[in-house]
Structures are given as structure tokens and as C-alpha cells.
Amino acid sequence: MKKPDIPIDEAARLKALRSLNILDTPSEERFDRLTRIAKRIFDVPIALVSLVDEDRQWFKSSVGLNVNETPRDISFCGHAIHGDDVFIITDATKDKRFADNPLVLNKPNIRFYAGCPLKSFSGNKLGTLCIIDRKPRSLNEEDLQTFKDLAAIVESELAAIELATIDELTGITNRRGYMMLAQHSLSLCIRQGIPASLVYLDLNELKMVNDKYGHAEGDRALIAIAKQMKNSFRDSDIYARLGGDEFGVLLTNTTKIIAEDVVTKFLQSLEKYNTETVRGYNISVSYGIVEFNHDKHGTVEALLADADSLMYKHKKTKK
Fold first, then answer.
1. Residues of the chain with CATH 3.30.450.40
2. Is domain 175-318 in CATH 2.40.128.90, yes or no?
3. What's the first-to-final CA gap in the chain, in angstroms?
4. What are the tens digits of pLDDT across the range 72-121?
């Protein structure tokens, strides 16, 4: 048996998946309807909307299978998310990657598998729409197109969830998405005993830019900040526009001293942007950095509040 490889974008992929806050949620008719349709159209006993988490594949919708998840190491979907097209196994017993897989040797006795990757807005593969049969078979071109069409509808439903956590102007996570992701990451830091630091950023003089150059230019300044954040921070870091001219970054496995170095790199990227882009004003930020203290910061809100306070002190000293 061949275990699925880990995608090169794994950190970003898991970040995109968890930003949906969909894992371990109850079944929903909008997804169940699509798996029922897939089961009926292709006359298969099993149809799933499978999301590939760090160590498992979890089923948002499951028809014909009475479990909610299986280990990622034995998943077919873990292989399917590596490609862009439908991943098909016509007879698992004759495929050396799967012939001795527990899901083939035991229930549900998979023979045929087809999985169409489900992508986020950023292009990361979240999981698959998949169909499974207990006997060997194949799909013709018309079948494949129908299957892709159904998968596109599942993607649209996932996109509707993702849009609720994305800032429309900058394209990065919004406050709602940030609070969910950050709390999840802090819980992980607590369990594993690793440090974390939060950076609170505020764009200086946005009102001046809006008044002097217009709100469209103010929007461009906010977009520029978001772009430099993408360039400066790691895929595993959680950064967001919290509202207005305020941004937040949660740096996991990072002490305050290291976070200060990361912020210095970000400030340097802003200086380079200002040098290369002449707009009549310079983009600058005030910031506060707080290292997570389990005894003091029980929630993300408490951590944000401390960082926000430090940011305002920094802003006053700059004035």
C-alpha cells in the first residue's frame, strides 16, 4: 500500500480548509443533496464529500457509508488532491498502490473509486467529491463531465462559506475568519506547548489619504498592505484585515523576539514598496507585538486587546 504524499502547499491548504470552520459540523442538505444525486446518476453504493484534514479524511456528506472519517494514510482522496483532474481507480485490487489497503481488503471493499478535487479560491485542494463502487468499472467522457459538473457545484457551496471569511477588498481573511483560525491555532499551541505571538497593525494616515487623494486611493493603500503581508509572512501564519485600517497576524511557534524580526522584514518590504511606487505619500504602519501567555490570554480577544493597546502606544510615540 502506498500512503498519500503530502502536498507541497500543505500548510496553506490546511489553513484554507480550517478557515471554513466546516470540519466536524453537522450534515447539511446542500451537500447531502449532491451526494444523493451522484449516487443515483452513477448507480454507486457510496458517494462522499470528503475533506482531507491533517491526519484524516472527514466526510461533510456521506451516502452509503456509516462512518464520519477514516485515517488519511489509507485514504484514496489523499491521492486525489494531488491532481487537477478526476482521479480514477478502475479496480483497486489490481493497483499496487491500493491492493492491500484496508479499505479494499475489508469494508467498504472498494474496487472502483473516482474523486474530483475540490479547490478553494486560492487554488488549494480541500478534498474531493468522490464515488465508490464494490465492483470494477469505468467512466466514459459524458460521465466524467457530469461528475465534474457536480463537483463544481460542491465547490460553489464551499465558496459561499469561504466568502463569509474573506475580506472583499484585500482578498485576505476577514475578522470572522481570523477569530476562528486564530483560536484553533492557539489551542494547538497550548496542547503542544509551543509559543505564539500576535502582531496588531494599523495603517497610518488613512484618513489623510482618503481626504487628499480619494477613497479609491485609500483602498489601494489597504490592498498594498495586504499584498506586502502575503509576501512577508509564512503560509502557516494567520493574517487578516480586522476592519477599517487595522490588520492582525498570529505567528505560531514564534517568540516575541522572533516576531520582532518578522515585523522588521515586513517594514522593509513596505519601504521598498514606497520607493518603487510613487503615489505622493508613503505607506507606514504602527504596530504592537504580544507574546501569548496562557495564564493571561484565555482567548484570542484578550490577546488582540493587549496588542491593540501596544499598537496605540507606538502610534502616539510616532506622532
1. 10-163
2. no
3. 64
4. 999 999 999 999 999 999 999 999 999 999 999 999 999 999 999 999 98
